[in-house]
Amino acid sequence: MPTTRTTSFWTTKRRDVLAGYLFIAPQLAGIVAFVLLPVGLSIWFSLNKWNIFTGDLAFVGGENYLRAVNDPQLPSVLLATAVFSGGVVILNLAAGLGLAVLLNRKITGGALFRTLFFSPVVISVVAWTLVWGFLLQDNGAINNLLALVGIDGPNWLQQGPTAMAAVIVTQVIRSVGVNMILFLSALQGVPRELYEAARVDGATPAAVFFRITLPLISPTLLLTAIITIVGSLQAFAQVAVLTEGGPDLSTTVLVYYLYQQAFEFNDIGYGSTLALMLLSFVLVLTIVQWQLRRKWVFYED
Amino acid sequence: MKTDTARLGPPLDLDETGAPSPRLRKERRIRSRLRSVVLIGALVVLVIPFAVPTIWMIASSFKPLNEIFASPPTLFAANPTIDAYREAFAFQPFAQQYFNSLYIAIAVTVVTMVVSSLAGYAFARIPFPFKNVLFLVVLMGLLVPSEVTIIPLFQMFKTMGLINTHLPLLLVPAFGAPAVLGTFIMRQFFISLPVELEEAARLDGLGRVAIWWRICMPLAKSALSAVAILTFLGSWNMYLEPTVYLTSPDLFTLPQALTRFTDAYGGEMWDTQLAAATMTVVPVLIVFLIAQRQFVEGLAHSGLKG
After folding, report:
1. ipTM of the assembly?
2. Window 266-295 of B, Cβ < 8 Å to A
3. What's the CATH code, domain B92-260?
4. Integer-rounded Cα radius of gyration of chain A
């Protein structure tokens, strides 16, 4: 390695500036080319109509947005998105926190259980969803198990409500491990003296949980809630593999609907409009998180 | 569980002198042992939906078709067979697809580690004008989901004639939004590194590249392994992108190939899919079991974004 030579022009400071720009150049170029430019193009596409046969764009102004307002399918898509994301976030936080509380006690085999609960996180979404799809077939293992105890299980994936429940549960079980770990480290950050003080005061375990534990881990709770919702808005593979949005539109969430519009019906303009809608949901959630975080910064060290 | 512990709450088992009697102390020990048995029992039940599907997938990949849907369900094959594995390779260019996934994931991981650690180091350490503004620009990558940019990216790559090639799957993750989490992790790490380590080297006249490569990178193993694990899994498990960009089975990646085991009538080839899924999942699972701590820490980082 040659040592740095400073000349009258190339002072250490100038060399640093050059190094700084060169170091960030690949990442910055990637963001410009693969994030900012595409977002700009999305906005442009959403103002145009796409001719599939000639590949030409024709400027149509707000037509795609008008179409979104009048799209008879969109309300049901947004409802499915809300049910899916709401279901995932509630179940994920409850299960993540519950598992973290259980694993926070010192028990034999705790590490093994932690590994098992976490293991679906590293498994390919497609493989995981495929397997659950098999288990949930009308003649699949779950219904065969239910038959053993005399229950005639439903054809899970062929009925709206059970199909939605299946997509939610499959997603939660696959991803709750990450939240479990985050909650576990938050729980371990609660000072022990607080618990001892509460016990001396004769507080019940429920009171300890709701008055001490929950408020102290609330920043983690908020952070994971937002990350979980944002993640659920992007759940494409789960829906594509398990239900393909069906039956009818019951599990067609926004991300799957925009994929269909853009890549199955080749409607680039309308697909882009829906993509911008998805982006605005994510942005709003992120801003909410920033605002709330500022409010709760008191709790964070 | 909660009501259970509530009943066993504050200690009331004191004898007349105010100290716990030996009898009560013994009783308490039994109770606490009973409590952990109940707890372990509950965990065993809870862990079923997390662990059994994976075990069932592996076990059933060795079953003949009629056993997969047997009633009552079985876990292990009565007549084990590897026909499904043979079929996986015969029906699709599965070995090629395996290689595709592997080389794409490795290439993306290596490039991301370089791109992120360079950018992370610069944002953490080197003073230059507009640094904070540019960092915010880069962080935009965390805000914009890849599902939003896929439509224009597809059009861009189409214009360049790169559809049905691996380039979009290599370039976008390595330089674009997925790399930003890596840059963020590396920046946080380098900020925490004592600056004195570098000052001595700077006085010796070492340039920034040498400092980054010879002094900082060797210290950054934990952060780098987190970035590597996140990036490799992200690429290995990617589904939307290959589905959109690739049309020839020779070029498919594994998750995409898994969904294409359907016979001429569109019926799913269950046993073949299970064998292919097992081959996709098991190597990652084994690495996970070996390097658990790194995986858990690394993936917990993915929760830190935002």
Report:
1. 0.88
2. 270, 273-274, 277, 280-281, 284-285, 288-289, 292, 295
3. 1.10.3720.10
4. 25
